[in-house]
Amino acid sequence: MGVVPLTEILSGAFEERYGVPAINVFNDLTMEAVLAAAVERSSPLIVQTSVKTVKSIGGDVLWAMWTAMTAGIEVPVTLHLDHCPEREVISECLRLGWNSVLFDASKLPVEENMRQTVEVVAEARRYGAAVEGEIESITGVEDDIGSETAAQQQELAVALEFLRTTHVDVFAPAIGNAHGSYKQAPVLDAQRVSDLVAAHPVPIALHGGSGLSDDQFRDLISRGCAKVNISTALKETFMKSGLAFLESAAERQKWDPPSLFRSVRQDVVDMTGSLMTLFGSAGRAG
């Protein structure tokens, strides 16, 4: 197995109605830890990088980390560029070897979004890569991309025209979900997922997964949300784990960075593994 196309990971998940965690990593520790969780739980995994992470660490460095950490890995994993409105960054990541990209042209008129997405799909196909598309902004700002303005849904016919014209491999609809931490329990339009899948069977990406209830996850996954994005939950786990360790270190006056890294890593592994079990991807790698 090892590194495989996004479509290979999602085809089984979509058909058998389980979800694959798509987790936004932001450094070497988080990348290694989520991969370790995939091996531990025998689960497929989508590792995601934001545009901000690509720019802050560097595409070349991220790619070197990825290839080193996935060498010899025996579970199916894939590398995805999340929410990217910048065509030049998409081109850079595809050239380096990313397996898939989300071209986020949701701020453009649908017609222009569709025209450019067709171009991105053609470019990605030359590298054997997949494309995720969206025509509606997901509410909330994540890694400097997005808006707090509530997303407007397009009519089903518009979404279907986009899917049939662009041939994207994954679709991310707005269903009342949001990036970041939910200030109150979200009211989700789960039926929209069912309607889209019934009319055009394509794996659905669930954005804004951090903070949804277990029942909401299970319901949406059963309707076709095969790719479940997690970003805020990882950031919170990483920083709260580090904070707790540092507070304890200050009390004990013991300063050992490797111990900090081991503690945070374990918390990230545990969080990722629990999501794999919840989403139903644990044990699916064989």
Automatic annotation (TrEMBL):
Q: Which Pfam families match?
A: F_bP_aldolase
Q: Which UniProt keywords apply?
A: Metal-binding, Zinc
Name of this protein: Ketose-bisphosphate aldolase
User: What are the GO BP annotations of this UniProt entry?
Assistant: carbohydrate metabolic process
Cite the InterPro entries for this sequence.
Aldolase_TIM, Class_II_FBP_aldolase, FBA_II
Which positions are catalytic residues?
82 (proton donor)
The note describing how and how many cofactors are bound reads:
Binds 2 Zn(2+) ions per subunit. One is catalytic and the other provides a structural contribution.
Q: Which domain of life is it from?
A: Bacteria
> Which Gene Ontology molecular function entries are recorded, alphabetically?
aldehyde-lyase activity; zinc ion binding
Q: Which cofactor does it need?
A: Zn(2+)
Where does the chain bind dihydroxyacetone phosphate? 180, 208-210, 229-232
Transmembrane regions: none
Recorded source organism is Actinacidiphila cocklensis
Positions binding Zn(2+) 1 in this chain are 83, 179, 207
Q: Which positions does UniProt annotate for Zn(2+) 2 binding?
A: 104, 134
